[in-house]
Amino acid sequence: MTKSNTVETALQRLKTDPDFANNMIHHKIIDGKEAVYVPFPEQLHPSIQTALASKGIEQLYSHQREAFDAATEGQSITAVTPTASGKSLCYHLPVLQSILEDASSRAIYLFPTKALAQDQLADLHELIEASGEDVLSYTYDGDTAPGLRSKVRKSGHIVLTNPDMLHSGILPHHTKWVSLFENLKYIVVDELHTYKGVFGSHVAHVLRRLKRICRYYGSDPVFICTSATIANPQELAEDLTNTDMRLIEKNGAPAGKKHFLFYNPPIVHPTFGVRRSAALEVRDIASLLYKESIQTIVFAKSRVRVEMLVTYMKELTKKKLFDDTVMGYRGGYLPSERRKIEKGLRAGTIQTVVSTNALELGIDIGQLQACIMTGYPGNIASALQQAGRAGRRQDEALIIYVAQSTALDQYIIEHPNYLLGQKPEEARIHPDNMFILMDHLKCASFELPFTKDETYGEFEVQALLAFLESEGVLIETPDKWHWMTDQFPATDISLRSAAQENVVIIDKTTPKETTVIGEMDTFSAPTLLHEEAIYIHQGTQYQVEELDWEEKKAYVTEVDVDYFTDANLAVELKVINEDDQTKFDTHITAYGDMAVLAKATVFKKIRFGTHDNIGSGPISLPTVELHTTGTWYAFDVPKGWTEAALTDAMTGASYAIQSFIPLFVRCDRTDTHVMPQVKAVHTEKPTFFIYDSYPGGIGLSEKIYKEWEALIEQATEHVDNCFCDVGCPICIGAQESEVGTKDDVLSLLRALTGGNNHVL
Amino acid sequence: MSYEQKLMAMKKLLTKKTPKTEPKKPPKRTIPKSPSYEESWLKEGLEKEENEFGIVYKRVVRYNSDYFHGNNQLGELRSALEKWRHFKHAHPLAPELSNRIVFFDTETTGLKGAGTLIFLFGFIEECENGFTLTQYVLPGPDHEAAFLYASNLWKEKMTLVTYNGKSFDMPQVETRWTMNRRELPALLKHHQIDLLHGARRVWKTELDTFNLTAVEQSQLQFTREGDIPGHLAPIIYQDAVKSGRAEALMKVLKHNEWDILSLVTLYIRATNLVLETDHPETATSHTNIGKWFLDLKLYEDSAPFFEQVIQKYGANHPLTHYHYGFLLKRNDAHEEAVKSFRIAADQLMGRERIIALEEIAKLYEHKIKDLQKALRATEEAIALIDVDEYLTKRFRERAKRDFQKREMRLQKKLSRINGQ
Q1: For testing contact with chain B, the best of A175, A473, A487, A594 (most B CBs within 10 A)
Q2: Rounded distance, CA B174 to CA B119, Å?
Q3: CATH number at residue B358
Q4: Cβ contact, residue pair B3, A695, below 8 Å
Q5: Structural domain that includes position B222
Q6: Which residues of B touch A439 (CB under 8 A)?
Q7: What is the rounded distance in angstroms from the CA atom of residue A252 to the CA atom of residue A80?
Q8: Which member of B3, B116, B141 has the closest CB to residue A477?
Q9: In terms of domains, do B292 and B378 share one?
Q10: Which of A195, A297, A440, B219 could be bridged to A205 by S-S, CB 3.0 to 4.6 A?
C-alpha cells in the first residue's frame, strides 16, 4: 500500500465514522501541480554543481534559477517560497558563487531568531562540505564564544545572525568588521514575512543603518529576501530594505493534491453556545490518524497545550517500551533534543509531532502527510504555512482545521473560502514612526556622524538632527553632527517594542537563580503586570509579586492556579490632530494623532472555563500616557435610542469589531484597541475609536481608516450569524444579564450598515 | 513638553525624498577650522600644535629622575629595565628593549563602540634629563585626524606600558584609526605590556579591587588629592566642548597625568617583585608570582618563590604547597609532591582541596603504584564533594563523575590483584 492510499483511506474513515463525520463542515480540495525544472546556469561553479549532485539535485526549480540569474546580475530580489520549495538554494547559490569567484566576498544572512540561524548553519555547512571548498560560515550571536568572535569578524565569508545582534552587536562596532563591510556582496533576509509591525519597523531602520555603513566602506550589497505567501511581499521587502526589488513569484516546486477539512466541535450547551473542547477533538482525530499510520503534525497554540496533547497521545504508545513515535516540539527544548526530533521526522521514525508555531518557521523537518490545526493561528499566512507542512511532493495531503470557540475561528468555519479563496493578509511596517525613527537616528549618529547634507534612508533628517542637538544628544560642528555622550544608544533600544522604556520581567521563583524572562512596554504593563496579576509567559503561569514602577521591574514567581486576571482600564482619549477626514451622509470617518491617558483601576480574578469572578483588588499605579495614531467613526444618535442603551450596544459592537481587525490588517488582536464613546469630546457624537497600541502608531489604524464600512459590515454579519441567544464570547462578549443587549447591538450595527446602503 | 509630545510635534518636520535614492559618496575632507573656544582653552595652559591634518592641543610636563611618585623615584626605571635585560625568557612584563618604552593612557567619551571618541592621549617617556609627559587633547570632534596623527603611533614601533590597554585603550585606538583610515597612515602594531594583568597575577586575593587608584594606595603609597573621579571625564570633556570652558578639563589632564606616573612606578615595583626573590613580600604575592612563572612554564624561576615561602611559613601557607606540588610532580619528586598536596588537602577548602586529592590519587595510582592509598584518597574526595559548599554545581558534578570512574577502576585493579 502506498502512502497516498493511506491518506485516502484515512479520509474515508473520517468521513464515514459518525463521531467525526457530522462535524465535518466542509471538505475542500486544492489540486496539485507538477514541478517546473530548469538546467543549472552555465556559470554555476563546478564545486557547487558537485555539491548539489551529491544531494541528488541535477537541475533547479524554475524560481531557484530565476533568483540566481537576477542576483548575480546585481538585482535585489524577493522570492515567495512556500514551505518545502527549496528556498535556501535561492540564496545559497548566488552567495557561494560570489565567494568561489572571489574569496574576499562576504555575505550576511539575517534570520528573525537565533535558533533559526543556528538551524540554517547546519544546512549550509552540509552544502559547503559537499562542495569540498574552503568557505567559512559562522553564526554570530549572544552564544558565540568570545574566542571565536574575532575570527568570525575577520574571516567569516558568511555570517548568520539576527536583527537584534546586528543592531547592538555588529553595527555599533563596525570598525571591527572592516573586511565584512568592505566586501559585502549579499544581504539575505530570510522569513521576510515575520518582519511586520513594530519589530519590522525597527528592522527596517537596522537595515537602513546597515546600508549606510556599507556605503561608508564602499560596498553596495544585493538583497535576497525570501518570504512565505503574503499579499504584498514586494512592497514589504522594498519598505523594509529601502531598495527596489524584483519579485519572484512563480514557484517551480511541485505540490500534491491537498484535502482541507473544516471541523467544528459539536455543541454541548446550546444556550450559551458552548462547544466541545477543540483540544479533545484534536486528540481524537490525531489518534485516528496515528492508528492509520499517517505521519501527522499537530499545531497547538501554547506550550502547555503541546504538552497536554503529547500526554494524551502517548497513551497510544504506553504499552510499547522506548517508543518515541509521538513527540512534542516547542521552544524551551534543548537544541540537541530539537535536532533529534527533526531527524526523527525526516527519517519517519516519529509518527506524530505536536508543535507550537515554532515549526511554522523554516526549520527543515521534511514533509508530513497530515496537519491538524487547533484553531485559527490568527492570520491566513500562518495558516497556510502550517498547512504547508503536509504534502510530500506529488502525494496527497490532509489538512484538518479544528475550530475553537472564538469569533475568528467560528467565522472561518462559516467561510472556508476566506482561508482558501483569497490572498493572505498584507504585512505592513511603518518606518515613519517618529519614536522608532528617532531611536535609530541616534544609533546611526553613534555609528557615523551625519554630515550637514546627509539624508538617512528615504528621510530628510537635518531638522531632526538639529532637534537631537537641542536635546543635548549631538554636537554640531561646521560639517557634521557628532555623537558625544557616554551613552551607548543601542542597548537602550529593544527591536521588539516601540516604547521608550520597558518593564523588565524577572522570575524569582528560585531565589539564587533569578532570570529575566521578558519585557513589556510601559503602556501595557499596568494592566498585565500589576501586583497579583497572573502573567502567562509561553504557557507558564506566573504571579506578579512586586511591580517596582520607578525601576521598571516586575518580580514574578511561577504558580499553578485555575484563574487568570483581567484589569479594568480607565481610558481618556484626546484627538491631538486630525490628519484626514471623510464625510458620509450618516457618519464621518477620520484619522489622526491621539493621546491616550490610561489608568488601571481594579482587577478581577476569573476562573478558567466557567469565567466566574472569584476575587478582585485595586491597582494603584500612575496614569500612563500613549501618543499614537488612531481612526474614528462618528455617527448621529439613531432614532429612539437612549444614551444608556447606546452605551451598552456600542460596547458590544466594539467587542465584535475588535475581533475582526486582524482580518483587515495583519496584526495581533492586541496591536490595536477599540474604544466606544457615546459622546466624544472631539466629534460631539457617538464615536468608535481605534488606535494603535504602540507609541507613535505603526500604521494599523491608518489602514483601518479606509475600511471602516467593510469592518462594520463584517462585524454585523458575524453577530447576526452567531447562534447564541443573548450574546457570547464569540460575538459581543459574555453578557452578565439577559437584557437583550445582543438585539440592541445588532440593531445598532444594522442601522450603521443600513445607513450606508441608503446613500442613494 | 515631554519628549513624546515634542516628537509627535516633530512629525510635521519629517519629509521624504523620492523613494530609494540615497547619497552616493561621502564628501571630500577639508582641514577643519579651529574651534571658537580655542583662545579660552589655550588660556588654561594648553599649547597648539599644527600638523598636516589640522590642529591639536598639547600639554608637556617635565620631571627630574629623582622625582618621587609615592615611594618610588621615576629614575628607578633604569635599573628595572636593566633587570629585564638580564632576564632571558619571554615574560608578559618584559619590554622589547630595542623599542622606545612609553607609558600610555587615554581618556574617552564612552566605554565602547564606534561612537566613542578618544579625547586625551597621555605619554610618559624617559628623556635626557629625566622624564617627559606629553598629553594631546582633541580640540573638538571634527579634529580627530590631526589628534591621532600627533600620537606618532603610526611612526615607529614602541613598547607601550598601559593599565588595561590590551582590552580597552588599544582597541579604542584601533577603532578611531579605522574611522580615519582614509586620511591617516596605517597604525603600527606595538608591543604591549598591560600592568592590569600583571597586578592581577601578583596581588590576586590580596586586593579586592584592581582599579588603579586602589592599587596606587596599597602598593605605591601614593594618594591623590583633588582628583576627579574617572567616570566624570566624558561629561567634563563634553561640557568643555559645549561651553568652551576648560577649567574642569585641566583636572582630567591632571588625573591622566597621575595615572601615567603610577604606571611608571607600578612597573618598577612589579619588576622588582617578579625578578628578585629576596624582596620582602607577603606569602600570598610570592605564591602568586611562583604560580605565574609556573603557568608560563618557567619552572626554574618559579621554585625559589615557593621554597622561600615554605621555608618561612612551613605548612602554614597551604596554597603554596598546592602549587608547589605541581612543580614537584613535574620534577618527578613523587613522594614530595604527595606531601605537598597532602598539606593542601588537609587545610584548603573547595576546588583546590578536591584537585589536591585528585593529584594524590593520580600519583599513587600511576607513579608510586600504591593502589590502596590511591583508593583512599579517592574515597576521601568523594565524601567531601557532597558536603563542601564552596564547590560550584558544575565542578561538583564533573568531579564526582571523574572520581567515581576512578574508584571503579581502582577497585577493579585491586580485585584483580587480590584474585591472583
Answers
A1: A175
A2: 14
A3: 1.25.40.10
A4: no
A5: 38-275
A6: none
A7: 11
A8: B141
A9: yes
A10: A440
Q: What is the pLDDT of residues B317-365, one digit of tens each?
A: 999 999 999 999 999 999 999 999 999 999 999 999 999 999 999 999 9
Which residues in chain B touch residue A483, judged by CB atoms under 8 angstroms apart?
A: 115
Write down the pLDDT at residue A737. Answer: 58
Q: Which of B53, B88, B14 is nearest to B181 (CA)?
A: B53
Distance, in Å, from the CA atom of A228 to the CA atom of A385, rounded to the nearest integer, reads 7
- Tell me what ipTM this predicted complex has: 0.89
E strand spans, A636-750:
672-677, 687-692
Instruction: Give the domain CATH number at B164.
Output: 3.30.420.10
Distance from CA of B272 to the nearest CA of A (A): 33
Interface contact flag, B17 A449, Cβ < 8 Å: no
pLDDT at A2: 42
Query: Nearest-CA distance from B31 to chain A in Å?
Result: 11
Do the beta carbons of residue B316 and residue B294 sit within 8 Å?
A: no
CATH superfamily of A3-31+255-420: P-loop containing nucleotide triphosphate hydrolases (3.40.50.300)
- For the stretch A237-279, pLDDT in tens is 999 999 999 999 998 988 888 899 999 998 877 666 667 888 8
Which DSSP string do the residues of A458-522 spell out, in sequence order? TEE-HHHHHHHHHTTSEEE-SSEEEE-SS--HHHH--TT--SSSEEEEEE-SSGGG-EEEEEEET
Is the domain of B217 the same as that of B309? no
Alpha-carbon dihedral A63, A65, A66, A70, rounded to 10 degrees: 140
Residues 6+ apart with CB under 8 A from B256: B105, B107, B120, B122, B135
The CB density around residue A626, as the number of other CB atoms within 10 Å, is: 24
> Are the beta carbons of B222 and B216 closer than 8 angstroms?
yes
Whole-model pTM over 0.90: no
Question: B78: which 3 cell numbers?
Answer: 633604569
Q: Which three cell numbers stand for residue B277?
A: 626573590
What order do you get walking across the sheet with B158-162 strand by strand?
B47-51, B54-63, B130-137, B118-127, B100-108, B158-162, B191-194
Check: CB of residue B198 under 8 Å from CB of residue B135: no
Query: Which tens digit of pLDDT belongs to each residue from B225-243?
Result: 999 998 999 999 999 999 9
State the nearest Cα–Cα gap between A540 and chain B, in angstroms: 26
Give the whole-angstrom CA distance, residue A477 versus residue A465.
12
Strands A553-558 and A502-507: parallel
Count of other CB atoms within 10 angstroms of residue A195: 28
Cβ A255 vs Cβ A32: under 8 Å: yes
Record: fold of A37-248: Rossmann fold (3.40.50)
CA pair distance A303, A539, nearest whole angstrom: 5
Residue pLDDT, tens place only, A516-532 = 777 777 777 888 899 99
CA distance A219 to A177: 13
> Can you state the percent helix, strand and coil of chain B, rounding each to 5?
55, 15, 30
- Residue-wise pLDDT tens digits, B58-100: 999 999 999 999 999 999 999 999 999 999 899 999 999 999 9
Phi-psi region of A699 (alpha: psi -120 to 50; beta: other; left: phi over 0): left
**Side-chain half-sphere of A544: how many Cα atoms within 13 Å?**
27
Same domain, B70 and B197: yes
Amino acid identity of residue A227, one-letter, is S
